[in-house]
Design a protein that fits this description.
43% of the residues lie in helices and 19% in strands. With 357 residues, it is α+β, with helices and mostly antiparallel strands. The strands form two sheets. It has a seven-stranded mixed β-sheet with strand order 1-5-6-10-9-8-7, with helices on both faces. The chain has a three-stranded antiparallel β-sheet with strand order 2-4-3. Strand 3 and strand 4 (179-181) form a beta hairpin. The radius of gyration is 35 Å and the shape is elongated. The N and C termini lie far apart (85 Å).
């Protein structure tokens, strides 16, 4: 038998263990001590393994001593844990009582400052109201999209130069599919048309507001995370003239009399023909100023007639159906309507700025 495995050694070890347990004043430290006293490498555990090499009488005697020692140590640990948990509970209750005492000193009858919706949220709600009044419904969609919805179904295949217009933030690249943070709200065009084909839900007259992401460098007119509102109409006999009329009606309804819209030829892979649309500068009312680059106009968004390739991707017959789409920044609308000099002010959470709106 090893010299350390005898009744005196076990008793001495137990006395030392109980003394250590009595000095611990932290639950984490007690957990570590528990592992060192009763864990797989602890002396009491090792001694139990040594019993197999002893004679019967000695094995029974020392086995009983080890069992009693383990029971005493385990009971001491449990008792100490209970005391420390009770002390921790009392400390939390004392903190709660102090908090309640502070609440009693609060004069609830005194005027309290109330919060309000953020300017971007209010702008989004106002834009939705304008389009609902024009006969549109409102839909929302996921901010994390597959490459197919964000690009390919919108006639932007891999390698297409238009992808350089969208500095994409990738969530997962490669097999089984590439996943991105959506760079525009246009993927919902595809989702809504797919659903309409399946359910027979055409025609469509819908706007889609939401948050989008691009790998841009934030400056006075760009943000990494910003908000767009997308419009989609799919019906029989839709023409570019319907699009132009919708843009002008929206501009007057939202920005007021004296603010007009104009369309300039442009290019988007998912519309043909395509256009950028500008509105009269809200700062100088078309009189030319530094904000509008001395043009009298400010760019708001893009639009166009839905490309037949997009219809083909979702199974819509372009011989029967036609449509238009448009999109612009919600943040930019707030920027223009309230004459804000820097878009970054919308995300800085400066209370002095937010209180103005």
């Amino acid at each position: 038998m090893a010299s350390t495995l005898d009744a005196a050694s076990v008793a001495a070890h137990v006395d030392e263990a109980l003394a250590r347990v009595g000095t611990v004043d932290d639950l984490d430290a007690l957990g570590a001590l528990d592992a060192s006293l009763l864990g797989r490498t602890a002396p009491l555990t090792a001694w139990h393994k040594d019993l197999g090499g002893l004679g019967d009488a000695e094995r029974r005697e020392l086995g009983r001593a080890l069992h009693e020692a383990t029971t005493r140590v385990r009971a001491a640990l449990a008792e100490r844990r209970g005391l420390l948990e009770a002390a921790a509970l009392h400390a939390r209750l004392a903190e709660d009582r102090l908090f309640l005492d502070e609440l009693e000193d609060l004069d609830v009858s005194a005027p309290q400052e109330r919060g309000h919706r953020h300017l971007v949220t209010r702008t989004r709600d106002e834009l939705e109201d304008v389009f609902v009044a024009m006969g549109f419904s409102v839909a929302e969609g996921p901010e994390v999209e597959t490459d197919w919805y964000n690009f390919e179904a919108l006639n932007i295949p891999p390698g297409h130069p238009a992808r350089t217009m969208h500095d994409t933030i990738y969530v997962e690249a490669g097999e089984p599919e590439t996943v991105v943070l959506r760079t525009h709200t246009s993927p919902m065009q595809v989702r809504l048309m797919e659903a309409a084909v399946t359910s027979g839900g055409l025609p469509l007259h819908v706007v889609i507001p939401g948050r989008v992401y691009r790998r841009d460098t934030p400056d006075a007119s760009h943000l990494v995370e910003f908000h767009q509102i997308e419009g989609l109409v799919v019906d029989e006999g839709i023409t570019f003239a319907d699009l132009a009329g919708t843009i002008q009606s929206f501009t007057t309804a939202y920005f007021g009399e004296g603010i007009s819209a104009r369309l300039r030829p442009s290019y988007f892979p998912f519309t043909e023909p395509s256009a950028e649309f500008d509105i009269t500068c809200t700062i100088c009312r078309g009189q030319r100023c530094r904000t509008c680059g001395q043009t009298g106009w400010m760019e708001l968004g893009g639009c166009g007639v839905v490309d037949p390739a997009v219809f083909a991707a979702v199974g819509i017959d372009p011989g029967r159906w036609s449509g238009y789409a448009f999109g612009f920044g919600i943040d930019r609308c707030a920027f223009m309507r309230h004459q804000i000099a820097d878009l970054r002010a919308l995300t800085d959470n400066d209370v002095r700025f937010l209180r103005q709106f």
